[in-house]
Design a protein that fits this description.
Blueprint lengths: L5 H37 L10 H28 L2 E4 L4 E8 L2 E8 L7 E4 L8 E2 L1
Length: 130
């Protein structure tokens, strides 16, 4: 496990922010496609036939491509040693050393800098100021 200093973690924030924003945009589009597909299936009248199969196929492929993009971006974060804790909320943890034990430096999308930390066995609600 890679351990970050505060300076190391903050240096990655622009890249992490970009990846997170891109992942959130992909997820919003996937959610919209899923809603469309669910409505189309429910309108099929239970017989399994839909009017425009090619449109549904295209939308399914687009959703699959978006999910793959999210997974690729998640792998980039994981390769950096960063832990995504909540995509919708934009929660990111950076493992760090604090007094000889591993803790998380905690950051949420929209915050200018990393100003919080928490123990590894608790979450965002238990974070404390640095």
């Amino acid at each position: 496990m890679k351990l970050f200093t505060l300076a190391d973690a903050e240096a990655l924030l622009p890249q992490v922010r970009d990846e997170l924003l891109a992942m959130q945009a992909c997820k919003r589009e996937v959610d919209g496609l899923r809603d469309y597909l669910e409505r189309a299936v429910s309108k099929s009248g239970g017989n399994g036939h839909v009017r425009d199969e090619s449109t549904l196929t295209e939308k399914r492929r687009r959703a699959e491509a978006l999910v793959e993009e999210i997974n690729q971006r998640l792998r980039k974060l994981n390769d950096l040693g960063v832990e995504l804790k909540g995509l919708d909320e934009g929660l990111i943890d950076f493992p760090s050393d604090r007094g000889g034990r591993v803790v998380y430096l905690c950051w949420r999308l929209g915050e200018d800098r990393i100003a919080w930390w928490h123990e590894i066995d608790v979450g965002f609600a238990a974070r404390q100021p640095l």
